[in-house]
Automatic annotation (TrEMBL):
Residue numbers spanned by region Disordered: 246-281
Keyword check for Transmembrane helix: yes
Transmembrane segments: 286-310
Protein name: Pentapeptide repeat-containing protein
InterPro entries: 5peptide_repeat (IPR001646), Pentapeptide-BTB/POZ_domain (IPR051082)
Keywords per UniProt: Membrane, Signal, Transmembrane, Transmembrane helix
Superkingdom of origin organism: Bacteria
Lineage: Bacteria, Bacillati, Actinomycetota, Actinomycetes, Streptosporangiales
Length: 405
């Protein structure tokens, strides 16, 4: 006689397993919520509307701080942790945020005109309507950030990261986002006239109805990018990879065409009804010979095409490296000029002893490291070491200036 399990026992078993599993799910949900909202309302310092441009001291801990409407022009926030801070409508003109952390920060409507945002980390930040006119944001990180309606006119965005960021209706007119990393970014209806997007990674980005007049896409990666309705009048696509301008408006320049036509096969009728078997055999031999010649010609053509494509890719890669190297060399030169200028200021102000400061040595070391990295660089990836050293040098100079001034 087979034994059966009562339905009540089965139900109890499932109820018990559910009660055990439920807390795990609840815990996972709690972790996700914490990652999305790192700050609780009122958790940080309340500094709403305060003016810090006249000598008032900021607290040491600005994490989750509420600086709504605060006046912070020219203030130093170098390497500051401002995760989750609220900077809505704050005035931050010429402020320095080098290597600062503003992940999940609320910066809606904040004014960053001429601010230094180099290497700033603003992952998941809310910058809707923010003003970044003439801002210096080299290597700044904005992945998954919302910059809808933000103004980035003439902003320096070299090697900045906008992966999956939202820049709908943003204004990037005359900006310099060279070597930008903006895979899956949304530039719908963005104004980008004369922007410099050379060597940018824009794979699967969206440019629907964007104004791309005279934009420079030289050597940019554009695979999967959507240009539907975008205005590309006089935009340059020199050596750009996988550009598909279907649905775009206007006449661009320097569109590369790598499509090769497929030769049409010609149907030939062989002679029929020839009573002479010798003649038929000769015709058959001629047909086979002709096929062999055609196949050889096709094989040779394919080899030439493959070689040409390979050489073209190699040429593009070399040209891209040369362009990046020139940019890195210019960055090193500017860093050297900044060091010389600060040294001159120390000498005329009687602060020559500041050249013994640790940050001063760090800046000099970074400058030398950048030059050495440039000499050793043979590939594009190796030039990132140059950029990192230059940014480290500038950060050290920024800290030094903050203490002096």
């Amino acid at each position: 006689m087979r034994r059966s399990i009562p339905l009540t026992l089965i139900a109890a078993t499932f109820a018990l397993s559910g009660s055990v599993i439920a807390p795990a799910h609840a815990s996972a949900g709690h972790v996700t919520a914490a990652q999305t909202n790192p700050c609780r309302p009122g958790e940080g310092a309340n500094l709403r509307g305060k003016d810090f441009t006249k000598g008032a001291q900021l607290p040491d801990n600005l994490r989750c701080a509420d600086l709504t409407g605060a006046k912070l022009d020219g203030i130093e926030f170098v390497q500051e942790d401002m995760t989750g801070a609220i900077l809505r409508n704050a005035s931050l003109k010429k402020a320095r945020f080098t290597q600062a952390t503003l992940k999940h920060a609320d910066m809606r409507g904040a004014d960053f005109t001429e601010a230094n945002l180099g290497q700033m980390h603003a992952d998941y930040a809310d910058l809707r309507g923010a003003i970044l006119i003439d801002a210096e944001a080299g290597q700044a990180q904005f992945p998954y950030a919302d910059l809808t309606g933000a103004t980035l006119t003439r902003a320096e965005l070299t090697q900045a990261v906008f992966t999956s960021a939202k820049l709908v209706d943003a204004d990037l007119t005359e900006s310099t986002p060279g070597q930008l990393k903006a895979r899956k970014a949304d530039f719908t209806r963005a104004k980008m006239r004369e922007a410099k997007l050379g060597q940018a990674n824009l794979r699967n980005a969206t440019f629907k109805d964007a104004d791309l007049t005279e934009v420079d896409f030289t050597q940019a990666e554009l695979g999967g990018a959507d240009f539907t309705g975008a205005t590309v009048q006089d935009a340059s696509f020199t050596q750009a990879d996988d550009a598909n301008l279907k649905g775009a408006k206007g006449t661009p320049q320097d569109i590369s065409d790598f499509a090769f036509p497929t030769p049409d096969a010609a149907d030939e009728e062989s002679p029929t009804g020839d009573p002479d078997p010798v003649a038929a055999q000769e015709d058959k031999g001629i047909s086979i010979g002709l096929v062999m010649v055609v196949l050889s010609a096709v094989g040779l053509a394919l080899t030439v095409v493959a070689w040409g494509v390979s050489a073209q890719r190699r040429s593009r890669r070399n040209a891209r490296f040369a362009l990046m190297r020139r940019g890195a060399e210019e960055d090193i030169t500017r860093l050297g000029e900044e060091i010389d200028q600060l040294d001159y200021e120390f000498q005329i102000s009687g602060r020559g002893g500041m050249t013994a400061d640790q940050d001063w040595r760090h800046a000099i070391d970074a400058y030398e490291a950048a030059k050495n990295a440039l000499v050793m660089a043979r590939r594009e990836q190796e030039l990132h070491f140059v950029a990192r050293a230059v940014q480290d040098g500038r950060a050290a100079l920024g800290r030094l200036r903050a203490r002096v001034h």
